Amino acid sequence: MVQSPGAVLESGERDLERIEIDRPVVVVVAATRAERERLAGLLPDDVTVIVAPSRERAEALLRHCPAAATACAAATYHLRMEPEVRRVCFGESALSLTRLEFETLSLLTSDPEHVWSLVELSRSVWATGFVGDGAQVRSVIKRLRRKLTEAGAPLVIETVRGAGFRAVPLTS
């Protein structure tokens, strides 16, 4: 469910792809419908609210709502992400990415505090729980780091030893 001022929409993934979001996004996760509605009702009208029964469902909704994911990234990392052409813009620069690079960056920037494990990245980006030695994930991270550095992007991908990866905004 996505809430915008004056309207609450029960949306499937296809509907979410068409939503344009020009204000902050709040994701509400609660087990019962009554609790989700209560929490959403406490929020101000100037935010877009995505309501889900579980974290997994919220992540699925965000994957199918490019505007919400890019709004989160834009606020924290000063990026404009264009999913339809897999391009990341910052300042006067633009960076074209492969599908895997774009989806990995989108996931890493979707939650600034979260450290994404190899399993989580593999499950979300490659849609498989099998990681093997993690070489496919590390390879994409390596290419993504190189491209971001060469382009002067306002973020870096940091390795958290023994845990995974996270996107960290560069401070000026």
Describe the structure.
With 172 residues, the protein is α+β, with helices and mostly antiparallel strands. The protein has 2 domains: 1-64, no CATH class; 79-172, Orthogonal Bundle (Arc Repressor Mutant, subunit A). 41% of the residues lie in helices and 23% in strands. The chain has 7 helices and 9 strands. The protein has helices spanning 13-16, 33-41, 55-63, 66-77, 99-110, 118-125, 135-151; strands at 2-4, 7-9, 25-29, 48-52, 80-82, 87-90, 93-96, 155-160, 164-169. The strands form 3 sheets. A 4-stranded mixed β-sheet has the order 2-1-4-3, sandwiched between helices. Helix 4 crosses helix 5 and helix 5 packs across helix 7. The longest helix is centred in the last third of the chain and has 17 residues, at 135-151. The protein is globular. The termini are far apart.
The CATH class of the largest domain is Mainly Alpha
Let me know the average pLDDT. Answer: 77
Write down how many β-strands occur, each being a DSSP E stretch of 2 or more residues.
9
Number of structurally distinct domains = 2
Q: In percent terms, what proportion of residues is strand?
A: 15-25%
Query: Helix/strand/pairing class, anyone?
Result: alpha+beta
CATH superfamily of the largest domain: Winged helix-like DNA-binding domain superfamily/Winged helix DNA-binding domain
Spatial order of strands in the largest sheet: 2-1-4-3
Number of helices: 7
